[in-house]
Each structure stands twice: as C-alpha cells, then as structure tokens.
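Journal club side-thread
Mid-discussion, someone asked how the predicted structure for our own chain would compare to the paper's figures. Pasting it here so we can look after the session.
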Amino acid sequence: MSAEQLDLNAIRAKLAGTSGPQYWRSLEAVAETPEFKEFLHREFPANASEWNDPVGRRGFLKLMSASLALAGVSACTVQPDELIVPYVRQPEEIVPGKPLFFATAASLGGVATGLLVESHEGRPTKIEGNPDHPASLGGTDLFAQASILSLYDPDRSNTITELGQVRPWSGFVAATRGALSAQTASGGAGLRILTETVNSPALAAQIQRILAAHPQAKWIQWEPTTRDNARAGARAAFGEYVEPVYDFTKADVILSLDGDFLAAENAFGVKYARAFASRRRLDTAPDRMSRLYVAEATPSVTGGRADHRLPMKASQVEAFARAVAARLGVTGVTGGAPAGAEAAVAAIAADLAAHRGTSLVVAGEGQPAAVHALAHAMNDLLGNAGQTVTYMATPEVVPSEQHAAMRQLVVDMDAGRVQTLLVIGEANPVFTAPADWKFAEALQKVAWRAHSGLFHDETAELCQWHVPSTHFLEMWSDARSIDGTVSIVQPLIQPMYGGKSPHEVVATLSDRAEQSGYDIVREFWMTAGSSTAPASAPVAAAAPAPAPTAAATPAAAVPVVAATPAAPFAKQWR
C-alpha cells in the first residue's frame, strides 16, 4: 500500500497521543489497516489477539519464563554443602599445579600391595605402584588403579542409619554397647564378628582382645573368592598354614598346574609378572630365558605366554600332577597320566629333574588341596625350597578355612544361636555366599545386626544398623603383604562422608570407642607390635618367622587314587 492510500493525518494524530519510544515494522501496523489485520490473522491465527493486548502478552511471557525456570531446576543435581575457605597461610609443601606423592597400601583378598598416590591440592588423583615396596616393585594392577574411582563414587553411603532413619555416631555406640552387655553373662556365646580377610595386625589384635573378653564369641573371615584350597594344601603338606613365595628370577623351568600367576589371580601377581618378564627378554639375556609349561582348562594370561601349553579339563589336572610327581619319584604317589599326555609327562618330568634347585612347580588357586600338596612335594624333592620358593607365614594374621567357618555361621544363625552380629567390609555375604546356604534368611533370625561398609549393599539392607566406612585413602591402618612386609596405610584426605574405619567400628565392642583410627594403630605399634614395628616410613619390613623350607614327608598327606580316564588332549605332545 502506498503512502498516498494511507491517512497520514490520522497516523500523525495517533502518534501524537502517545509518550515514550514507539516501535513498529510498517506504517500499516501503526494505522492498523484492514489489510494488515488480515495478514496478521493468516500468519498468527492462534495468537493474533495477543498482538495489541498487553495483559495477554504479559501473561504469555510469565508462563514461558516459569516453564524455562522449572526445566532448568529439574535438570540440576543438588550438590552437598562444602566449605570453601581460602588459605590463611598456605602450606609450604603445596604448590598449585604441582602434585605431591604419598606412600600407602591397599589390600585385596587379604594381601597388601604398596602404592604411591598422586595428590593435587589435597585431593588424590592417581595411583601407581611403590617402587620401594617388595610386593609391587613399582607395578600395580587394575584393581588398585580403579580404586581411586570408589573414593569419589557418588553412590557411597554417607549417613549412619537405624532401620532407615538417620542416627548419630553416639547412638550407634550406645546401641552396640547395649547389645554387647546382653552377651556378658554367656561369655559372648551369641556374638559373631564377620569381616573380610584381615591382614592388619592392629585390627586383628583389636578383635582378639574382644574374643579374649568374650571367650564364647567367634570371628569369621569371608572372601567371595576364598583361597581355602591353597591353605588346605599347605596345611596337608606342612602341618600348618604357610604361604609359598616364588622367585621367578631364579627359575629356569616352570610348571604351572592350572595357575594364572601372571594375572590378578595371585596375590603377588604384579611382582611375579615383573620377575617372570626379566627372564624372557631376548635382547638382554637370551641365554637365560626360562621355559614355561602350562597345563590348564581355560586360556589365561599365563597360558598365552607358555612355551608349551597343554589344554585339559580342570578335573584332569590332578591326575596330570600325580603322573608328573610319580615320574619324578615323589614317595607314596602313584597314578597314570591322562590319555594322550604320557609323552608330555615324561618330557616335563625329565626337564624338571635336569634343573634341580632352579625349577618351580606352581598350583592354581582353583585346584583342589591335593594338587597344592603335590606341588609342594615336587618342589621339595627337586630341591627348590629355599631357592625358587620359600615358605612364609600367611599375610592374614589369623588364617582359617573360610568356607567351613562361614557355613557354620549360617547354621548357627538359622538355629538361633546368634543374637548379635557385626559385619565389617565389602564382602557382602548376602550377595556372595552360595545361594543354597540361604544366608539372607538365616541373617534375619539374628536379633541385633549391624553393617559397616562403603556402600549400602544387600547385606546392609537386611541389617538394622548401617555405618558408612572410610575408603582406604581416608583412614589410618596397617596391612601385611604376602612376604611379611608391613605397610602403614595413611590417609590422603579427610573422610568425605564422615565414615568410620574398621578400627573405630570394632572399638565400639570395647571400652575404647572414643579412640580414633590413628590412635589405635599408633598404640598398637608402640606396644604390642613394638618387636616388629615399622619405621616412620610408610613401608617397612616386619619379618614374621618363616615356615619350614621343606616338609619331611609332604606327599604323605596326598591320597593315592587312580588317574581318572579322560579324552585325549586336543594337541598331541611332540
């Protein structure tokens, strides 16, 4: 529409009656011509009435603003309150951007590994092996590397609860003392303490003091993957629980009986991998390369590095071990080789016999006790004891056959003989105990049940009390490695969720409930542990008395049975 067709005088009169700045797209919009109104209704049919209605337009903007605000709120996560306070005086050793390293140790399966933890401005960020620790030699495994993630896991438990209700620490201490006082008359007959495998001398001493005060009470240790077969085999061979420690740097010929010693199966796997690799380098010592024979059922890391790998069923390994032992001349052992393995047995036995004192026989954790006893007997006969293998006290302070002890606990709970149960650690027996034991059903028959752990797991769900535990990077403790080395576990950060260490939880069963973990560990090494106390450094050798280097008649404990007939091996020995 041209300017001549518009009534300019009317437009001027309309604008003269307004105040303040006015905005429009065209003269037609100001004049509100019929043509403009028709265009508006065609372009915006639903909101045409809003164009000149200030109230409607304001309401529309309010609704849109509220929608956007609510959408933003629903997408946010409420973070826990944190105090952010600048340094009044910056610590001398902390330089922003420059990491610090602290020595500590982590336990897995009752065995400690020495670690170096990298920390930035007071927060742990990376874990590596401690090169000065004999159990790691600077190496580490996937479990230690990943343990930094559990420190910052948002699913960690963060409050003490009783039947789902938040309670203070003092409330738990009072409840524990009340439950314990009810056991005084019976000498603790209804008291049970269930933990993971304990390799902490200080924690073991705490529990043993409680058992001394309550002689009828019992302490049960449980790991989902127990080492009962290895323990039973050592006890059968030596009459006591001992731990074989292998030196692969001295071994020229190695026989692995379904053992994956290069992987995480073995508690000393990091060190063994480094020691084994030192004898397999063509570029540095081609004339000193070791030879590895592996008899196994499932392909493994160790089997993949074998010079000669013999695939067989797991049930055939014992017959194979008996055949090799009989060929070597171990007293009291008879039995034929599995079908198709006769040539392999003869060749391996001859190679082992030709390297007396520099050979090694290793049994896998999953093999029965008889295979472990046979391995000890062969190492003894070959003169390997004290050379390529030494026998030390077990890293767990009080070794036991966990499967039998745990089964008895279920029987006692089911029969109503347990009134007070304290569960400590991440073993989570409700989830990990064999299903046919019906642990969960038996647990609910215990009158007073308490759980302490990093997470509110299945076991915590069935306990009345739950106490969040500290991460190993948040607590003071001590831990023993497979060779007897004791390491001090030191915190790198304050407990982020107010957790309590196992030392502090166990202390509630005594008159020392107000002691901190630091005081408990320090007191132990200043008094009871003074004879083997570590130096001020986080890592120090505490030398437990070594076990006998050889058994008088280790094969006597190995029952004599005929070899089980089996199908021929997939790969014939050549």
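Post-session note: Confidence is low (pLDDT under 50) at residues 531-547, 549-574.
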